[in-house]
Amino acid sequence: MGGQGLRRRLILFGAPGSGKGTQAELLRQRYDLDHIAPGDMLREHRAAGTELGHLASEYMAAGKLVPDELIVNMIRHRLEDDGDAKGFVLDGFPRTVPQARSLQELLEKMDRPIDLVAVLDVPEEELVARLSRRATEERREDDTPEIISERLRVYRVQTEPVLEYLGDLVPVLRLDGRGSVEEVNGALVQAIG
Ligand code: ADP
């Protein structure tokens, strides 16, 4: 591990339900990366009752995106805190073109360029099925049918365009996210080097 050629600054990209969180966690364990997931960070803020948690909660409950400025500040602090020792996997950020622009600017200043954007492609029917299953298992408040369809709509409208923006700047790899957890992980490990 820790070889020179390792691509260790990663963005995992995909719709809600595409498996980003599961795969990011496996990569964190294998390569000792910092797993940066704004959705998890926001849920922690909410549970801790911080001002940010309070501001974010209505957006999250409705399946809408939290305003860019709040998210970008939160991620900026996180990246500043983590140092550049290990590398990172971003899971759920950037989710809008302005977020992607801010990230590019920030990482350029820090001299920490993104090595790879890995996209987990999963058809919409499969996403709906997975999110509905998770709704029963985890009882997340934003996994109700109406809110699931809103989150998928937000993904198509606000998040998909991020790929076009990033595609001009960093290597993008599209993976079939319908495979098993192990298959998708294998493909990611291969891409990381
Ligand atoms: P999922 O990918 O399954 O939708 P997440 O845990 O990544 O779940 O996100 C949950 C919610 O947190 C989102 O619906 C949104 O309200 C908020 N959120 C997460 N990441 C971002 C982001 N980058 N920008 C704005 N809001 C975000």
CATH architecture: 3-Layer(aba) Sandwich
What's the CATH class label? Alpha Beta
How many separate domains?
A: 1
Please list the strands of the largest sheet in the order they lie side by side: 2-3-1-4-5
Distance between the amino and carboxyl termini: 10 Å
Q: What are the distinct ligands in this entry?
A: adenosine-5'-diphosphate
Structural category is alpha/beta
Low-confidence stretches: none
Q: How much beta, percentage-wise?
A: 5-15%
Radius of gyration: 16 Å
Helix content: 55-70%
User: What is the ordering of alpha helices and beta strands?
Assistant: EHEHHHEHEHHEH
Fill in the CATH topology.
Rossmann fold
Number of helices: 8
- Give the number of DSSP strands: 5
State the fourth-level CATH superfamily.
P-loop containing nucleotide triphosphate hydrolases
Biggest sheet features? 5 strands, parallel
Principal-axes geometry comes out as globular
Mean pLDDT score: 94
Structural notes for this entry:
This protein has 193 residues and is an alpha/beta fold. It has one domain (9-192): P-loop containing nucleotide triphosphate hydrolases (Rossmann fold), CATH 3.40.50. Helix content is 59%, strand content 12%. It is built from 8 helices and 5 strands; from the N terminus they run βαβαααβαβααβα. It has a 5-stranded parallel sheet with strand order 2-3-1-4-5, with helices on both faces. The radius of gyration is 16 Å and the shape is globular. The model has no long low-confidence stretch (mean pLDDT 94). It binds adenosine-5'-diphosphate.
